[in-house]
Write a structure and sequence with these properties.
The structure holds two protein chains of two kinds.
Chain A: E1 6-11, H1 12-23, E2 25-30, H2 37-46, E3 53-56, H3 60-72, E4 76-81, H4 83-99, E5 103-111, E6 117-121, H5 126-131, E7 140-142, H6 147-164, E8 167-173, H7 174-178, E9 180-185, E10 228-230, H8 244-259, H9 262-265, E11 268-271, E12 278-282, H10 284-299, E13 304-309, E14 311-313, H11 317-326, E15 329-334, H12 339-348, E16 353-358, H13 367-374
Parallel strand pairs in A: 2-3, 2-4, 4-5, 5-8, 7-8, 12-13, 12-15, 15-16
Antiparallel strand pairs in A: 1-9, 5-6, 7-14, 11-13
Helix pairs in contact in A: 1-2, 1-6, 3-4, 10-13
Chain B: H1 5-9, H2 29-43, E1 50-54, E2 69-72, H3 78-88, E3 93-99, H4 100-106, H5 108-117, E4 121-127, E5 130-131, E6 137-138, H6 162-168, E7 173-178, H7 182-194, E8 199-204, H8 220-230, E9 231-233, H9 238-241, E10 245-252, H10 258-274
Parallel strand pairs in B: 1-2, 1-3, 3-4, 4-8, 7-8, 9-10
Antiparallel strand pairs in B: 5-6, 7-10
Helix pairs in contact in B: 2-7, 4-5
């Protein structure tokens, strides 16, 4: 059987929408915001064609609330937004993490803080994706670097979300979302799609938050499993609790369900690392400039390699630790003031020098800017 | 023969697990919940097909006590959670229970948009004129001049009329009653539950602890008397209704429901996709 590979010239946001459909997304709620609006526009057209639902809500708070509600109804659900909208979504993002409701939030980052520059790229929401909502909670965030990855990582976001019953953030950026590339799409049968497990026990035996399981199955509402969902600390049945002996196992489980599966969740890509003495750690749009800088540096004989983070949360600690044992210097180019550099420093613990290359003026970080950091500083005494 | 109320309600309670409840003695929330259960029972709605969605506050705790599908969400956001759920499961009876702060302050925008959009939810708003759970702060429905913990010199803001807002925003069904008029309330609940579209039922309730105590009505009974004296049926002649709150069905019109309209969009889009 031949695979019907489809080749298309496509925009990143379009690829994200196509990825969502391929992953089985059947509900989208959103609010218009640059530079993510194309995702909503395209899904408003595509979703009803596959029997799915689209709704434009009155704001981003309502959007993510509707997404969680639809997910509880059994539909794979998502929203897409940018920084200001992502800020508004934080409270209910925490609700989804606490109540363990699968959902995908695409944040096409734009220059911030505040209104910033709506049409300019940034990677300023990395820490917000991790800690934007209050309280300790597990989270997964993925960072696409190309149009094809907007497709792939959207599919992966749905799969991880359904598998681990957690919100997953696709931390895209304006460059990756708005550029057009020639994309080779995988044949439909080659796209891995994970379906949400549903309970097999009779309703009276069902506990939606059973701490003896890693990820208890989630019954769609309306199919005979009547249970309670709350943002309060809850027991295995979902009822509010104040008992430490019920709260502690819950906390342990929701963190363990992510931490025990880093092999499955954390994805990185290595480039030219075999003989590298300098390592680049890059992600999202910055990784594109980093790759160009890497090629330039290799041409001039510098032994540079790159570790590209496709998963930014949970942070790829093991991979960065390994890198720090192989190289003397780590360069972290990013379009913020060093949000991932701080994580790299935390993990490296002085085993290698860590240098940030940062840009926040709304212009794309350039290969030359990164290349300058790769070159050893010219001593003025010579 | 009709069974006593307790026997009707008991099979609907999560009695082995969730009691005693969190509400103060004499709170109107119990009357609202009991009446709602009787209305659901009277209409013969199936437990599996009923979902009760709440926000935050004293009413937010209401769903946990009853054996339906129950969802206790964030402050003010019950309506959008319910909207997503109703779109995913249009066949379900989705009941949203909110307080006045929940529905008209933090969630006011969702409330008017739900009325405009006309998604088939039954929105029950328990209006007790105050923020009860947090200790008696002024709400958007606290009457002018009233004392609350945040208006110790008297409230200088004019209150919302929840039902009139709902009607003006386009809700096809709007009704109002109080926790003292329980038979009327039950009938209105049945009507609201049967309405196709966004049905709003405002229930004036007593928070004698948070509101009454600071405003000359320190006992539940005094607040119930106040409700009896200050409300009139909606069909009362204008001369006799002056300054009083109207009760009954305030709006009832036919407007196409959102999820039904959306099914037509799906048919259209799928037809186009098949071509």
């Amino acid at each position: 059987m031949t695979d019907n590979v489809v080749v298309k010239l496509m925009q990143g946001n379009e690829a994200c929408a196509e990825g969502a459909i391929a992953a089985g997304a059947r509900f989208f709620a959103g609010y218009p915001i640059t530079p993510s609006s194309e995702i909503a526009e395209i899904l408003s057209s595509l979703l009803p064609g596959v029997g799915g639902k689209f709704i434009q809500m009155e704001d981003e708070i309502a959007s993510i609330a509707a997404v969680i509600g639809a997910s509880l109804g059994g539909l794979k659900s998502m929203t897409a937004t940018s920084g200001p909208g992502f800020s508004l979504m934080q409270e209910n993002l925490g609700f989804a993490a606490a109540a363990e409701i699968p959902c995908v939030i695409v944040n096409v980052q734009r220059a911030g803080p505040s209104t910033g520059q709506p049409t300019s790229p940034s990677q300023g929401d990395v820490m917000q994706a991790r800690w934007g909502t209050h309280g300790d909670h597990p989270i997964i965030a993925l960072s696409p670097s190309s149009v094809r990855e907007m497709f792939d990582l959207t599919v992966r976001a749905f799969n991880l979300s359904e598998k681990y019953r957690t919100p997953v953030i696709v931390l895209a950026d304006e460059v990756v979302a708005h550029m057009r590339e020639k994309v080779e799409f995988p044949a439909e049968q080659r796209i891995p799609v994970f379906e949400r497990p549903t309970p097999t026990v009779p309703p009276e035996w069902y506990f939606p938050f059973d701490n003896s399981m890693e990820v208890p199955p989630l019954a769609p509402l309306g199919e005979g499993y009547r249970y309670h969902v709350t943002g309060l600390y809850h027991d295995k049945a979902g009822f509010p609790t104040l008992r430490p002996d019920e709260i502690t196992p819950w906390f342990e489980r929701v963190f363990a369900k992510i931490e025990r599966h880093l092999n499955d969740i954390v994805e990185v890509e290595e480039r030219m690392m075999d003989d590298a003495e300098i390592g680049l750690v890059a992600y999202g749009c910055s990784a594109r400039s980093a790759l160009a800088a890497l090629r330039l540096a290799r041409e001039q004989g510098f032994k540079v390699g790159m570790l590209r983070l496709k998963t930014v949360w949970p942070f790829p600690e093991r991979e960065v630790t390994r890198l720090s044992r192989r190289v003397d210097r780590i360069i972290v180019p990013e379009m913020n003031r060093g949000q991932i550099r701080l994580e790299v420093e935390r993990v490296v613990r002085g085993r290698a020098e860590v240098v940030g290359v940062n840009r926040l003026d709304g212009e794309m970080i350039t290969p030359n800017q990164i290349f300058e950091a790769i070159k050893p500083p010219v001593s003025e005494d010579l | 023969m009709k069974q006593p109320a307790f026997h009707t309600i008991y099979p609907y309670l999560r009695s082995h697990k969730k009691f005693p409840h969190v509400w103060c003695p004499g709170c109107g929330n119990g009357i609202v919940l009991g009446t709602l259960v009787r209305a659901i029972d009277g209409l013969g709605l199936q437990k599996d097909n009923v979902v009760m969605v709440s926000g935050i506050g004293c009413t937010g705790r209401m769903p946990v006590y009853v054996d339906f599908n129950t969802l206790h969400t964030t402050h003010g956001r019950a309506i959008p959670f319910a909207t997503g759920l109703k779109m995913a499961r249009p066949e379900m009876n989705v009941i949203v229970i909110m307080g006045d702060g929940d529905a008209t302050a933090i969630g006011g925008n969702h409330f008017i948009h739900a009325a405009r959009r006309n998604v088939g939810l039954t929105a029950i708003i328990v209006n007790n004129l105050i923020y009860g759970m947090t200790g008696g702060q002024c709400s958007p429905t606290t009457p002018k001049g009233s004392v609350a913990t945040t208006t110790v010199y008297g409230n200088i803001e004019q209150p919302f009329d929840i039902s009139r807002i709902a009607e003006a925003a386009g809700a096809p069904f709007v009704a109002r009653s109080t926790v003292v008029h329980v038979f009327e309330l039950e009938k209105l609940m049945e009507k609201a539950l049967q309405k196709k579209g966004f049905a709003v039922l405002e229930v004036i309730s007593n928070c004698h602890v948070g509101y009454g105590r600071r405003n000359g009505m320190p006992a539940a009974v005094e607040m119930l008397k106040w409700m009896r004296q200050n409300t009139v049926p909606a069909n009362t002649p204008p001369g006799k209704a002056d300054g009083k709150i109207t009760r009954g069905v305030l709006a009832d019109k036919d407007v196409p429901e959102y999820t039904e309209l959306y099914e037509k969009i799906i048919e259209k889009a799928m037809g186009r996709a098949a071509e």
